[in-house]
Write a structure and sequence with these properties.
With about 210 residues, the chain is mainly β. Helix content is about 5%, strand content about 50%. The strands form 3 sheets. Strands 2-6-3-5-4-7 form a 6-stranded mixed barrel. The protein has a 5-stranded mixed β-sheet with strand order 8-1-13-10-9, with no helix packed on it. It starts with a strand and ends with a strand. About 25% of the residues are buried.
């Protein structure tokens, strides 16, 4: 079976507190296999006091604006954060392998508790075919075990899963709200093709939330 994408959201990060930090990409933080393919998250080291300011759990996002040609682009990297008292307060240390993405090895940035991130998962290692919206499963990220609940998804042609449509097949149903249809007027209804609430071999993306 092919890979599918997990979109993992943290329901406790609706109100984040951005903190200005100095980011240093150094040799002592090693890159791990699978980071470039988004199969795992890169690691960052952060002072416990900085982590407390961020209100962060296991995950931290670092964001900068980078000049590319005539325009500025936003660059965001999501990290698995580990505490270290050796890292100065208001600094984040990460691997030099990210220098190409950020465009430099030392820079000012903003950091905040991660709202959501994506992972590419081998379905042969985590086979969720037959699972339903609302079901829970466990996944490990660099020694961190997470319990996730499936909230939705989409198939290989972009049709979204609906929690109120039973089964895994595509069906044409009358909708009044998302997913699958966003009404432009009150009371508007449309018949749309959607997927049922069961994960199939044609599912390419699953939306999940962290359960604590």
């Amino acid at each position: 079976m092919a890979d599918f994408k997990l979109v993992i959201s943290d329901p406790l990060s609706k109100k984040v507190t951005p903190v200005k930090v100095k980011v240093r990409l150094i040799d002592t933080v090693e890159a791990e296999e699978g980071e470039k393919e988004a199969r795992t998250l890169p690691l960052c080291m952060v002072n416990p006091k900085t982590r407390e300011k961020l209100g962060a759990d296991q995950f931290v996002t670092v964001e900068i604006q980078k000049q590319e040609g005539d325009k500025k682009v936003k660059v965001k990297v999501h990290f698995l954060a580990k505490e270290s008292t050796e890292v100065p307060e208001n600094e984040i240390h990460a691997s030099k392998s990210l220098a190409e993405k950020f465009g430099m090895e030392e820079f000012d940035a903003i950091a905040y508790r991660t709202k959501a991130f994506q992972l590419n998962v081998d379905q042969n290692k985590l086979n969720l075919v037959g699972s339903k919206i609302g079901d829970k499963f466990n996944i490990g990220i660099k020694g961190i075990n997470l319990t996730l609940a499936i909230t939705g998804g989409s198939d290989n042609t972009g049709f979204p899963m609906r929690p109120d449509v039973q089964g895994a097949a595509k069906r044409r149903v009358l909708l009044t709200a998302p997913p699958g249809f966003v009404p432009e007027e009150d009371g508007e209804k449309r018949r749309k093709v959607v997927r049922g609430n069961v994960v199939s071999i044609e599912t390419v993306q699953l939306n999940c939330i962290i359960v604590r």
